[in-house]
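Changelog excerpt

This revision adds worked examples to the README so contributors can see how folded entries look when concatenated. The first example is reproduced verbatim below.
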Amino acid sequence: LPPELLSVDPQAAWFESATMVQLAPPVVAKRGQVLKSAIAGALASGISTAGMHPLDTLKTKVQSGGKSFIALVKELPNVGARAMYAGSVPAIVGAAASHGVRTGTYEFSRQVIGTVSPNCPDALNQSISSGLGTALGTALRIPCEVLKQRVQAGRDPNARAALASATKGKGVRGLFTGTSATLAREVPFYVFGMVAYEQLKNHAKGALQRDLGPWETILVGAISGAAAAIATTPADVLKTRMMTGAAVGTLPEVVKALVAKEGVGALFKGCLPRALWIAPVGAMNFAAYELARNAMFEEP
């Protein structure tokens, strides 16, 4: 027995030990880490979205039922840079805000799950944390995405006009058009992408027997992003059709009508520009986020 219990009645000591319930230590997430993760995620996503917006514009035009990717590329000299950056303001604001929330929630959730259930497999912890963070971040992004895509597709001349059109007759609900399709794209994309990124990074570190350099980390992020982009293209096509007004109805109704009219191949429209756009964005969202986060965590 501990020395402090030697003078205690043995019956009382036995009763205390038999009825004592062990409690896990309280879960305390490190607020500094969560905040820095959110800032790193917002910066990474905002910068990558700004740089790759022209490819996103091409992708949206292809998916909304317009010309083919090759035809649009040939017309680029006559289009001008301003048209390629149509809808960039809501795109950048929405991406930065949503990704900041997503990465902050991801970091917070990983810490909580790791404390509450230390034996939880890393892949499961990453999947749950990424799914939760994506769901919360997407709720912020959807209104900005609606405005951005209406401008990109040429439905409205600017974000203000898009706001008026989207809310006309529907109110605020119009800003959440395509929510089901967006969640069907965003949650699998980030869960698949984040788990692929973490697993590829760990395998690469094991094969090389050292930590990855910055460019190697960015390459892993690009591969993970491109793979996730291809896998979720059908949901992205449906989201674009619903948000731009090119298709009306519930998600199952839109899928049925699209496949009946244009065939299954229509679900993969814009796959090439989406992969080309998401690869560098994935490098920024996954890899540059981690590099920026690690830089902020370094002790001065």
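The second example, added in the same revision:
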Amino acid sequence: LSDQSSVRLSYDTPSRSVIRGQLLELIETYGSLTVNDDDYYYNDGTSARLLYAEGTIPMTYAGARYNVPVKLYVGVEFPHAEPAAFVAPTRDMMIKSNHSCVDADGGVMLSRLMTWDPSRSRLRDVARALSAAFSEEPPLFTKPNADVGNTSASSTMTSGIRSGARAARNVAGVASRVAANVAQRVPFSVRVERRTSSNSERRIEESTSTITSPRAEDVIHAKNLFRARAIAALLERLRHETEQRRSANLQSVELLLSQQTELYARKINLEQENAAMRAKCEDIEHGASEMREATNVMRKWLATHGQGTDQVDIDNVFKGDDAWSQQLLDAHVKDKAIEDTLDALDDLLNDGLIHHADYMRQVMKLCKEQFYARAEIAIVTKMQAERGITNNAYVGDKTRTPQHGHRLEPLSTMFSEPSFLQPSRPARADPGRTTWLD
């Protein structure tokens, strides 16, 4: 505790005197314990340099006394926290399974043995509690594979016996006690000290007497216990590995199923796209066929009407077959001409070359004329359809063909001018004028 070297203990200065005093009490009470220091690692991964008492503490089981190897670590928070106690079996020992206060790693659960009081509890109290608990339920046994099968308990008597008959009776009594005690289960191989009641028995027990192994029945029981624990461990490992492989296989199957679903969806999309592309190809082929037919018709027309003419009169290129067809053609021409004129007026207004009032006056006038032209197109188209003409070709009775020059009356004479289209200036002198533009 007073070491000032590079390796220092992890205790606070106020608690060092308490630790020193309790360790001295412990080794005075149990002379088989010695004090050392070592690194102690906690469950959270941290470590500390602690003092610990190492050695054996006595226990009494089935009338025999045994020494149990233990370690007592004094923690950093001592004495406010209880020490950490461990059973330290040797290579030929094994920890009893399902012990009431010792786990499989040798850790002792002191809370089941005593209540630690920082103000009154001492380290020697912990050692006494361990000795009492181990006397009721030994924590260690000899391993089955130890060479303990055929060795019998023997003792060497070194002191003389004054009376032969009395010594024989004493030896017989001791042998019967040993047989009765060995009939019970011996925890592990240790040096045994027998309690004697007479002087002759005490002289016999003062000699060095060592039990090196339990009975044959105990060896068989230990072997069976070891085999059962090994089988249980192997089964647990097999179950764990089986669960891991099963989980991995389930994940693989789910991944493959999701990939199969995605591939099937992609297949359907590709089939739909393929069908759409085929439909587009058919449409393109149909359009190309119609284009070839139209090209052939145009070539025939050019071959018939284009030879021997250097100049073509645009107004006389297309003529109607009768008066109504010519009227329909003129109405279409008028509608397109008004549309171009309105576009030109928009450009002039945007460029600032025309006043807004003049623009509005002309637009209102042209829109009225365009309305009449489109209405005329609708009426003449209906009249043509009634006599069986579709797409400028006769499909019905030609006797209903109108005489050349017989046209429908202009729509400007069939409809009155709406009030919102009438100009605010006085009406013109010739109200019956039927021309389309001023």
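Reviewer comment on example two: The chain has a mean pLDDT of 75. The helical segments are 13-29, 123-136, 164-183, 199-206, 216-305, 314-317, 323-351, 356-386.
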